[in-house]
Amino acid sequence: MPETRFASRPPSRAPEFDAAFRERFRDLLAWRRDVRHFRPDPLPAGLLERLLDLASLSPSVGLSQPWRFVIVKSAARRARIKENFTQCNAEALAAQPQERAARYARLKLAGLDEAPCHVAVFADRHTSQGHGLGRHTMPQMIEYSAVMATYTLWLLARAQGVGLGWVSILDPGKVASILDVPETWTFIGYLCIGYPSAEDDVPELERAGWEQRRISPGCLLER
Questions:
Q1: What number of other Cβ atoms are within 10 A of residue 130's Cβ?
Q2: Residue 202 within a domain
Q3: DSSP strand E in 45-116: where?
Q4: Which pLDDT does position 8 carry in this prediction?
């Protein structure tokens, strides 16, 4: 049997990213915020879909592209998501040490009421795309790939002046049930998306005195 060969094509020429672009890219990284305060203005028609399409340029294990985006438009489903957040947040508050409880209670941890767009992100661990490459010893690479797509979407949104808030204080099983997704999908996060009501290059949790951002890596070793 003759050897199977893939069709070859001439390599594309990589674009050049000059110093000005690199500086602007650094600004994008520095100004990316986890947004919790939104204006009610809707996004332009088709913008969310274009951002989600571009997020599919993210890297993924074995080229599996396992991310699954669910645009949540139903008012009833949104209300149930908010109920679940309220319950989970109350449980998280009760678990806080006494010296932090009052500060935790003052934190703005979701923008579910204000954000015009809601998107839930899932990872499909049972996808056949990618043929299992790179997952035998680390099956969690599927979830990591979906996280990469979420971060790519975050940067894309910020580049358009759009804010994104990642809500994680939710019960994964209940979110999957509320949104009626396949059982093989793993919940990654619930995203509130819209135009931010204010801009700041300092994380809100830092401004609220909850935590300080490290300037250098938290743990950097040489072996």
A1: 18
A2: no
A3: 67-71
A4: 67
Query: Dihedral sign, CA of 137, 139, 142, 147?
Result: negative
- Owning domain of residue 69: 34-197
Is it the case that residue 56 has pLDDT exceeding 60?
yes
* Residue 5: pLDDT over 60: no
Q: Assess contact for 117 and 47: CB atoms under 8 A.
A: no
Rounded Cα–Cα distance for residues 173 and 187 (Å): 8
Distance CA 123, CA 49 (A): 18
Q: Locate tokens 């919940």: which residue?
A: 187
Residue 218 lies in a domain: no
Whether 2 is covered by a domain: the verdict is no
Q: Is residue 12 part of a domain?
A: no
Q: What is the pLDDT of residue 201?
A: 87
Query: What is the C-alpha to C-alpha distance for residues 116 and 63, in angstroms, rounded to an integer?
Result: 32
pLDDT-based confidence at residue 1 (cuts at 50, 70, 90) = very low
* Cβ contact 130:63 at 8 Å: yes
Q: How many domains does the chain have?
A: 1
Q: What is the CATH number of the domain that holds 48?
A: 3.40.109.10
What digits encode the pLDDT tens for the residues 81-125?
999 999 999 999 999 999 999 999 999 999 999 999 999 999 999
- What distance in Å separates the CA atoms of residue 119 and residue 51, rounded to the nearest whole number? 12
pLDDT at 151 over 50: yes
